[in-house]
Amino acid sequence: MTGVREATPEDAAEIVRLRRLMFASMNDDDAGGEWERAAEEQARRQLAARPRLLGAFVVDGDPAQGGPPHLAACAVGRVEERLAAPGHPHGRFGFVFTVSTDERYRGRGFARATTEALLDWFAGQGVTRVDLHATPDAEHLYRSMGFAEHSVALSLNVASRAARP
């Protein structure tokens, strides 16, 4: 098994598999579905794009575990460009939306290692703040890395607005 490396477009299917495992563990439900095909195409395209706004870092799985080549863990996030603001002169923010470790590899520090690599990548992209949503099980990891509450996040699903006449 190797160390942390930057993901390539060829890793897209495995990144989506790990993302599915993340959702399944968060919801205690197998979260498979149509979204997986779209997510794989998006990951493949965004990992090949230049300039690259999708950052993804992975750890390869151990071939001795059997089966086809696979990833042990990943951390994935995206650079967002907003309007500049005090403390954020270029308006570049990061959002981490997937940190996942295959059950076979948990407890080995891969979530921390891939997230640290992603944070370093964000810094190299001129990002001044990185946000994420933490599960209760992972909150201690992110706090130990320096994450803290920033503000109360509010969300609204506007999908139904698109259907309005």
UniProtKB/TrEMBL annotation:
This is GNAT family N-acetyltransferase. Residues 2-165 form the N-acetyltransferase domain. It comes from Streptomyces telluris. GO terms for molecular function: acyltransferase activity, transferring groups other than amino-acyl groups. Its EC number is 2.3.1.-. It is an enzyme of class 2 (transferase). CDD domains: NAT_SF (cd04301). Keywords: Acyltransferase, Transferase. PROSITE patterns: GNAT (PS51186). Gene3D superfamilies: 3.40.630.30.
